[in-house]
C-alpha cells in the first residue's frame, strides 16, 4: 500500500508540469487508496470534486469516478446514493461499450441488491463473473467469483458456492492475490464449519512474494522527491490517523480555478 501511494503521489507532482488529465488521474488513484484505508468521506469528497470537472474529464474517466463515488456511498451504507451513481456509471460504460468496466459496476450492483433482493443480486453477480471469464481477466474472475459465491451462499446454494470458491484458489495463488485469497478462505469457512481457516492462512502470507531491489530503490528515490509536508503525512495516513487528499484538492482548486 505504501509503495502504491508513493508512486501515485510522485505521479501527482510530476503531472503539474505535464498534463491536467494526468493530474486528475493521479488524484483519482490516490483517492482509491484513501478509500481502501477507510477514509471513505474524504475519498468521496475527492471523487465528487473530480466529477465536477466536466470540461476536463473524458467520458471514460467520468464513468470510473462515478463508480468510485457509488462505492464510497456503499461503504458508508447509503445504498440509495450508491445505486444512483452506479447506474449513471453503467449508462456511460454501456454507451462506450466498456465491457471490462461493467464487470466492476455489475458487481457493485449485485452487492447493493443483495441487501433486499437476492435473486436480482445473483443475476448481476453472475453477469459480472461470466464477462470476466469470457474475457479471461483473471483478477476480475476472482473478485467477481467471490461476490457471486457469497450471494449463492445466502441463497442456500452452498455446494455451488463452494465449487466456485475452490476454483478461485489456484487463480488467486497464481496472481499473488493475497487479500482475495484470504477472502476466499473466510467465505469457505462461513459455508462449512469443518473448513479449517487456520491451517491455510499461513499459506496466504507466502503469496506476497519478494519485491525486487530495483523496485525498492525506485520507491525510495520517488519518496525523496516528494515535498516534506507530504512525506510527513504518509505514515499518519497509512496508520489511519488523517486523510491525504484534502491538501491535494486545495492544490487542484488553484490549478483548475474551481
Q: Profile the largest sheet.
A: none
The portion of residues forming beta strands comes to under 5%
Low-confidence stretches: 202-210
Helix/strand order: HHHHHHHHHHHHHH
Looking at the overall shape, the CATH architecture of one domain is Alpha Horseshoe
What CATH calls the topology of one domain is: Serine Threonine Protein Phosphatase 5, Tetratricopeptide repeat
Bulk shape:
globular
DSSP strand tally: 0
Radius of gyration: 20 Å
Q: Return the CATH class of one domain.
A: Mainly Alpha
Ends distance:
30 Å
Q: Give the % helix.
A: over 70%
What's the helix count? 14
Instruction: Output the structural class.
Output: mainly alpha
Mean pLDDT level: 86
Descriptive notes:
The chain is mainly alpha-helical and 258 residues long. The chain has a domain at 116-211: Serine Threonine Protein Phosphatase 5, Tetratricopeptide repeat, CATH 1.25.40. Helices cover 79% and strands 0% of the residues. It has 14 helices and no strands. It has helices at residues 2-15, 20-37, 40-51, 59-75, 79-96, 99-113, 118-134, 138-154, 158-175, 178-191, 198-206, 213-225, 228-238, 245-256. Helix 4 packs antiparallel against helix 5 (79-96) and helix 8 (138-154) packs antiparallel against helix 9. It is globular, with a radius of gyration of 20 Å. The chain starts with a helix and ends with a helix. The relative contact order is 0.12. Mean pLDDT is 86; it is low at 202-210.
Amino acid at each position: 500500500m505504501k509503495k502504491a501511494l508513493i508512486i501515485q503521489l510522485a505521479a501527482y507532482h510530476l503531472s503539474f508540469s505535464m498534463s491536467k488529465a494526468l493530474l486528475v488521474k493521479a488524484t483519482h488513484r490516490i483517492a482509491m487508496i484513501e478509500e481502501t484505508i477507510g477514509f471513505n468521506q474524504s475519498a468521496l469528497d475527492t471523487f465528487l470534486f473530480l466529477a465536477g470537472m466536466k470540461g476536463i474529464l473524458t467520458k471514460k474517466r467520468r464513468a470510473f469516478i462515478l463508480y468510485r463515488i457509488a462505492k464510497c456511498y456503499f461503504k458508508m451504507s447509503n445504498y440509495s446514493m450508491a445505486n444512483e451513481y452506479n447506474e449513471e456509471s453503467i449508462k456511460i460504460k454501456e454507451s462506450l461499450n466498456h465491457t471490462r468496466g461493467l464487470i466492476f459496476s455489475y458487481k457493485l450492483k449485485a452487492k447493493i441488491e443483495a441487501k433486499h433482493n437476492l435473486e436480482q443480486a445473483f443475476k448481476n453477480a453472475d453477469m459480472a463473473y461470466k464477462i470476466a471469464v469470457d474475457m479471461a481477466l483473471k483478477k476480475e474472475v476472482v473478485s467477481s467469483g467471490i461476490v457471486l459465491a457469497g450471494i449463492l451462499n445466502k441463497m442456500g446454494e452452498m455446494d455451488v458456492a463452494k465449487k466456485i470458491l475452490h476454483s478461485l484458489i489456484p487463480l488467486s495463488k497464481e496472481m499473488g492475490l493475497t487479500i482475495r485469497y484470504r477472502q476466499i478462505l473466510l467465505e469457505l469457512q462461513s459455508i462449512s464449519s469443518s473448513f479449517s481457516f487456520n491451517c491455510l492462512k499461513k499459506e496466504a502470507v507466502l503469496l506476497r512474494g519478494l519485491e525486487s531491489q530495483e523496485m525498492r530503490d525506485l520507491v525510495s528515490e520517488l519518496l525523496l522527491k516528494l515535498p516534506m509536508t507530504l512525506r510527513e503525512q504518509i505514515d499518519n495516513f497509512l496508520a489511519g490517523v488523517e486523510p491525504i487528499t484534502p491538501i491535494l484538492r486545495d492544490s487542484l482548486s488553484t490549478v483548475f480555478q474551481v
